[in-house]
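In the current project phase, we have settled on a layout for protein records. A sample record is reproduced below.
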Amino acid sequence: MRWASNPAWAVRLLQDGGHGLGYLLKDRVDDVATLLDALQRIQRGDNVVDPEVVGRLVQRPRQDPLQRLTAREHEVLALLAQGSSNSAIAAAPAPQ
């Protein structure tokens, strides 16, 4: 599988964490020395991610997680930042 065809696999691998994981592009595994090195590192518990994948992940535009919040979630976050208690936040009327 090429990176461009499904970047979600590499992202999921990184998000799941763990040890002894690897993600190499097909183009990289045709070099026996590179493949053996990666397998040995994985066997030791290291994580191996293809350098091209890392480069593309770094270049990906990042979405601001605050943009995904609803109006009420923004309000709750603001109330938390102001030091409001849970009961005060629960009693606050939801925005219309």
Observations:
- Residues 79 and 85 are 8 Å apart (CA to CA).
